[in-house]
Sequence to fold (180 residues):
Amino acid sequence: MARVIVHATVTVDGFIADPDGGVEWMFGRPSAPEDDAVVEKVVAHIGAVVGGANTTQTIEDGEIPYGGMLKVPVYLMTRTDHEPIERDGVTYTFVVDDIARAVESAKQAAGDKWVSLLGGSIARQCLRLGLVDELHLDVAPVLLGEGISLFAGLGQRIELERLETSAFASETHLRYRVLR
Fold:
């Protein structure tokens, strides 16, 4: 059975992007092979991706989940019907206004691998619905002061169990199980 995860790089103050959606702060930091190994381990387990409506336009602009490293089905939330898009060996399926259906479709496609949720809104919606099994957070040593938050507006308390913690040159890696 597929595991549903929130996998995100966040700042110490909890942002996934600057106020304009930029993520330049993620790049150009000192790195260690161990940092890359943590991320590669997660990526190797991903069998499908669910993303937000903002991602629809970015496909057209050439911005694709995980920079194109993954060749797995991608389910994108949207408000209007849209035919699937095939790009570079990846099928993007659009799901209208039903996040639970998108996650269930992604779980079916992922098999025994993981479903990665991309974007703050998607993560919060799925957490509220009890659809998330784990959080995988790569915390970059930077404070943005303002930006797009991963969890702001969640509106409820969710207990977590720490499964794994590691820290190397560029990031602190946190893995939590969502307790139900």
About this structure: The longest strand covers residues 3-11. Residues 45 and 113 are 5 Å apart (CA to CA). The helical segments are 33-45, 54-60, 99-110, 120-128. The longest helix spans residues 33-45.
